[in-house]
Design the sequence.
């Protein structure tokens, strides 16, 4: 249970910002001490070690040679495209599931909300405090993989070969993280069961979004602009598009940078607002 720090001399209720920071502080401490954090950190390190070993031993051409699909001005772009483009988004999704899947539903299932809410603590402070702590914990995980990626890139291409597009891709990836957490918090506020909120979030990101995007593009020939994972495509596309514009006469859609940023920003703002609204109105019964 999170205890609100109060000024004992004046016995005043902390401001909303103070409540958010206090909630974020103690929740982040719980995250950093939890088993889930070290499990996800281990998964990230394993992915980094496996990629480092395979690239170092086999030296695959796809990492070092431009193809008809990758014709970058900077020779290091194929490396960053293949290494970072798809793997980083997968780590973001795992981070959202691990840290956001049960962030709000646990207040109902574990009964912690019964002790917190009756105190002079705003629900919005609890919501945003937990969101900030989840974002911080996920940023540590994503930062580790970013460091591994850049470290390998600098080893093979040196500092002069580091592409500016990689900086853009990293910033896009953190915006995607914010959008993913916004959606996971929405489902966490929707369900009172931890397992249900985590399961729905995992199925949505790992299967549903990809399947819907595939069918909408291939069968309906409609750009899937309403799907979050489609907007996140700019994370890899800004480095180099691995997918051609058409295969066998079938249209393949790729979002522009402005479109991708708009999709991710819209998901973040809308889902965060809806999640907070659900949490504000749901009763602890």
Sequence:
């Amino acid at each position: 249970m999170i205890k609100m720090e109060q000024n004992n001399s004046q016995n005043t209720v902390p401001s909303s910002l103070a409540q958010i920071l206090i909630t974020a502080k103690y929740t982040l401490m719980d995250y950093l001490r939890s088993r889930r954090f070290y499990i996800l950190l281990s998964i990230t390190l394993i992915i980094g070690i496996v990629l480092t070993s395979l690239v170092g031993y086999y030296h695959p051409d796809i990492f070092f040679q431009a193809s008809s699909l990758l014709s970058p001005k900077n020779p290091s772009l194929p490396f960053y495209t293949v290494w970072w483009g798809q793997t980083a988004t997968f780590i973001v999704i795992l981070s959202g599931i691990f840290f956001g899947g049960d962030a709000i539903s646990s207040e109902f299932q574990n009964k912690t909300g019964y002790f917190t809410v009756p105190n002079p603590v705003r629900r919005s402070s609890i919501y945003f405090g937990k969101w900030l702590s989840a974002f911080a914990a996920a940023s540590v995980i994503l930062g580790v993989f970013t460091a591994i990626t850049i470290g390998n890139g600098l080893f093979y291409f040196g500092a002069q070969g580091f592409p500016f597009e990689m900086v853009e891709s990293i910033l896009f990836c953190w915006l995607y993280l914010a959008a993913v957490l916004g959606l996971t918090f929405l489902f966490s506020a929707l369900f009172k069961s931890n397992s249900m909120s985590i399961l729905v979030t995992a199925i949505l990101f790992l299967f549903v979004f990809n399947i819907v995007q595939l069918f909408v593009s291939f069968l309906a020939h409609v750009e899937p602009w309403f799907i979050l994972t489609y907007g996140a495509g700019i994370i890899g596309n800004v480095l180099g598009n691995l997918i051609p514009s058409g295969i066998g006469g079938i249209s393949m859609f790729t979002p522009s940078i402005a479109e991708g940023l708009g999709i991710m920003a819209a998901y973040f703002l809308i889902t965060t607002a809806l999640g907070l609204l659900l949490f504000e109105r749901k009763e602890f019964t």
Residues 1-9, 245-250 have pLDDT under 50 and may be disordered. The longest strand covers residues 246-247.
